[in-house]
Design goal:
- It is built from 18 helices and 18 strands.
- It has 499 residues and is an alpha+beta fold.
- Among the domains are: 97 residues, Uridine Diphospho-n-acetylenolpyruvylglucosamine Reductase, domain 2; 116 residues, Alpha-Beta Plaits, CATH 3.30.70.2190; 79 residues, 2-Layer Sandwich (Alpha-Beta Plaits).
- It has a five-stranded antiparallel β-sheet. A four-stranded mixed β-sheet has the order 1-2-4-3. A four-stranded antiparallel β-sheet has the order 13-14-12-15, with helices on both faces.
- Strand 8 and strand 9 form a beta hairpin.
- The longest helix is centred in the C-terminal third of the chain and has 20 residues.
- It is globular and about 75 Å long.
- It starts with 18 loop residues before the first helix and ends with a helix.
- 46% of the residues are buried.
Length: 499
């Protein structure tokens, strides 16, 4: 897929000729490279939609090295594009095409600095991979209550920077709720250290919360103190077949009323998504024998000593829902292997869809109480407006966030279709979301993919505050330029007009 040139990229001043040499002297051969074979893999986002160029790849090993590098970049006016696992969905970790920025990878910073089992807290560096955090916590009979499909590559720094969500938000909240303390390097190279968690602290703004979700535009996260929970004593996973998304909403309410705090996850998917996964994953089997318009995946969890009641609780809730006509059929996983098989069907939706052909993918949210109605109304509207497309919604119904994908007509050319039809489709979807008082980015961030749409649809006061905070903390615009924060009206034209 060919990426159109950035109209502002040519206006970014070229770095001083001595910068690369100074960066090499500062970080050493392991910490800074311009070798094309080593830099190349990190110049494209994982979905292949965005591609850029860079002076080189910096991989500092300590917060001090990050601080010194950022200070060096500030002196030379070199933009910085921070990068974690490069698994983001919005192009937020890909440089522009000017070649004037340096890629800053935190992947060498993987240390666990402190682990307080009694307090259920862990302090780790930004490059630690989520799966490693899960395994480290599990070894001490604890768990980190956030997971997602990319846990094998997503890093803690990236999760903090994007305020990642996942399948456990219903019960535990987004990454914002998991962060107790933060360490970050600011645009001038100074280090903000709020790693020590305090239950009460009224010394002004909660600066760590300002940095969470800022996508590297206000500071570079180098470490975080995270909350942990006791390990799960057991879980019960169930699969329900339903006639409609409205019935799924009714089932969610029944689960919330009947299960309370042990309701860990509630995911929905339409028949089309299940069929795509069954065709894509070798050996995959449908959990239920009959055909159903919609499906719900439900997980209940409890600590040791309480988990024994979960199967009976799930059976009671589902039996009542079947009796009330809300659920058409249901099954409770008989083993951990079957529970994992159920979750695999949910996790493989995105790759199964990619195998079908091109699609425009939207990560959106509306108020939880309105989500089922939104999905029922928006799908037909999109399909009527763009004949031949197929609107598919799946995901986290319980927290008001679904992945709303619009699949291309049969025979559409990948790349070409997205460029020619995709922009209009996404604008239409985003207009619908805005009309329902929702968000065009629920958990994947704005990055560079949605920055123009945020400028088009964002509340003027909201955008003004974003720009003011960015200006205050990064006055020269060197931290992840072109991401998250839309330029002020007229700024793009002014930049393009400069010689």
């Amino acid at each position: 897929m060919t990426i159109a040139p950035d109209p502002v990229a040519a206006t970014v001043p070229a770095p001083h000729p001595s910068f690369a040499g100074e960066a090499l002297a500062l970080l050493g051969a392991r910490g800074f490279t311009r070798d094309p074979e080593l830099v190349e893999p990190w110049l494209t986002d994982w979905r292949g939609r965005y591609r850029g160029r860079a002076i080189g790849l910096a991989s500092p090993a300590t917060t001090r090295e990050v601080s010194d590098l950022v200070a060096l970049c500030a002196r030379h006016g070199v933009p910085i594009v921070p990068q974690g696992g490069n698994s983001g969905m919005s192009g937020g970790a890909t440089p522009d095409q000017s070649g004037h920025a340096v890629l800053l990878s935190l992947r060498r910073m993987t240390a666990i600095r402190a682990f307080d089992v009694a307090a259920r807290q862990i302090t780790c560096e930004a490059g630690l991979v989520l799966q490693t955090l899960h395994e480290t916590a599990a070894a001490r009979r604890l768990r980190f209550p956030l997971t997602l499909g990319g846990k094998g590559s997503a890093t803690i720094g990236g999760l903090v920077a994007t305020n990642a969500g996942g399948t456990q938000v219903l019960r535990h909240g987004t990454m914002r709720a998991q962060v107790l303390g933060l360490e970050a390097v600011l645009a001038d190279g100074s280090v903000l250290d709020t790693l020590t968690p305090l239950r009460k602290d009224n010394r002004g703004f909660d600066l760590k919360q300002l940095l969470i979700g800022s996508e590297g535009t206000l500071g570079i996260v180098t470490a975080a103190t995270l909350r942990l929970l006791p390990e799960i004593g057991g879980r019960t996973v169930a699969w329900a077949g339903l006639a409609s998304i409205a019935a799924a909403r009714q089932l969610l309410l029944a689960c919330e009323a009947g299960a309370g705090e042990v309701l860990e996850g509630f995911e929905v998917l339409p028949a089309h998504s299940l069929a795509a996964v069954l065709a894509h994953v070798p050996g995959a089997r449908a959990p239920l024998p009959g055909a159903h318009g919609w499906h719900a995946l439900i997980e209940l969890t409890a600590p040791a000593g309480e988990a024994e009641r979960l199967p009976a609780l799930a059976e009671t809730i589902l039996a009542r829902a079947i009796q009330d006509g809300v659920v058409e059929d249901a099954v409770i996983a008989a083993s951990e292997a079957q529970a994992e098989a159920f979750w695999l069907l949910r996790d493989e939706i995105a790759p199964a869809e990619r195998a079908l052909g091109p699609a425009m993918q939207h990560d959106i949210s509306v108020p939880v109480a309105s989500m089922a109605d939104f999905v029922a109304a928006a799908g037909p509207q999109v399909e009527a407006r763009f004949p031949g497309t197929r609107a598919v919604a799946f995901g986290h119904l319980g927290d008001g966030n679904v992945h709303f994908h619009v699949l291309a007509p049969t025979g559409a050319e990948r790349g070409l279709w997205e460029r020619q039809e995709g922009k209009a489709i996404s604008a239409f979807v985003h207009d619908l979301v805005s009309a329902w008082h929702g968000s065009i980015s629920a958990e994947h961030g704005i990055g560079q993919m949605k920055v123009a749409e945020l400028a088009r649809l964002g509340d003027p006061a909201h955008l003004a505050v974003l720009r003011a905070v960015k200006q205050a903390l990064d006055p020269h615009g060197l931290l992840n330029p072109g991401k998250l924060v839309p330029p002020a009206p007229g700024a793009l034209a002014d930049a393009s007009a400069r010689p």
